[in-house]
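Hey,

Quick one before I head out. I ran the complex with 3,4-dihydroxyphenylalanine overnight. Inputs first:
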Amino acid sequence: MIVLKRFYTRSILRHIRYPYRTNATTTQRKPDPFNIEYDPIKQAVIYPSELIIQNKKYPTDSWTNVNGHILSRIGQNLHQQKNHPLYHLTNRLRQHFYQYYDPRKLSPKFSIIDDLRPIVTTEQNFDSICIPADHVSRTKTMNYYINKSTLLRAHTSAHQVDLIRSGLNAFLCIGDVYRRDSIDPTHYPVFHQCEGVQLFNKEELFIENRNVRGDKDYLQIFGSNEHRDATKQEGHTLEAVKLVEASLKKTITDLFKNLFPNAATLNSRWVDATFPFTHPSWEYEIEIDGKWYELLGCGIMEHSVLENSGLSKDHIGWAFGLGLERIAMIMYGIPDIRLFWSNDSGFLSQFAFDDSTRAVRYKPISVYPQCINDLSMWMGKTIIDPSDFHDLVRAIGGDLIEQVVLIDEFYSAKKQRHSQTYRIIYRSMDRTLTKEEINMVHKDIESHCKQQFGVEIR
Ligand code: DAH
């Protein structure tokens, strides 16, 4: 009996709400860019005969259950967007894993793939990694199907077999994954995962084997009398499994020591788990402020996954899959998973830095709207240093100032003068500001600028 992952069991019990259901008859809806309509009389979603997603056509059928809101997330690739927290985390994963070096190939051991399209086949998402035909994780209630044989990947494990088949024996695969789920502070139907895989042949696994005097085949990965039990799969020798387990656990422990540098005080634990694609399997948890967080699933890869990848009986490997949002939320103190999708500059500006190893704590942004006012000025004798301008603005606007950004600067040969334009973003932590109130502060800033810097407002 396969024990279900918590994600999967949770969502099956949920009612599925299509967008627009409640207000379909009363409010004007925007036309859906994918031509997906809701028929309020039949109370059903009406799909066109084919969906066009990123310029590719997919026929729809009775399995189709995607919606425009979800489809619009495809291609956003938050993990590739500069200055996004998931981008910094991806950089840190990259920097960490590039440290492992393969002296024979004169290159890093791990290849890092972060741009595979999230539209996959059921073969990739399920069959290739031994998820049985009747497994509950395949249901429509848990996944976004484009049609019976095509879906938005539910995990990055969907690419294991293709990547091994392409010749890789150590890699990370990072990308967006999609699961039908409720939306709350820790669940969102789109999130990001990082899959890790490392394979070993006999020489790589038993480096010491050469030194066993007189019998270099003393240690083996495979044995003919090995049966499956709690510690290993049929065919695997216990010594091989234990060495791969040690490599896996060391790799993951080292990664988290790097991500959470105060790791001396970081408690962690391995919890036995069950996945269709690994055996034995574990989950890794860390303790923060007395609370345990599950960060990843991992294990010794099922040998049939390696067979599906075209390998014969000469390799054994480990795999893990971790959720990026979960880690970023802990790392930066981000309280709500929905913030990752925010275009609010109050959120994004907190992650605008080049060094991804920088330790930052997220400061909550206000729930009240921003108000943006630009200020353009011709410089007097001297050019304003932006930090002086920031000081002046903050001195006048106080806590109403959320951000100050120099958005334009140029020299006019005709006027023989420098120009600067600053964007001032106003926002209160406790109320919606009125236009009049902001204009007063803004005017005040202008007149102080004239006095203090001798500028002319444009
Ligand atoms: N694919 C699993 C999930 O999304 C996570 C996972 C578990 C990945 C174990 C692995 C693994 O590679 O070995 O829940």
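The longest strand covers residues 401-412.

Talk tomorrow,
K.
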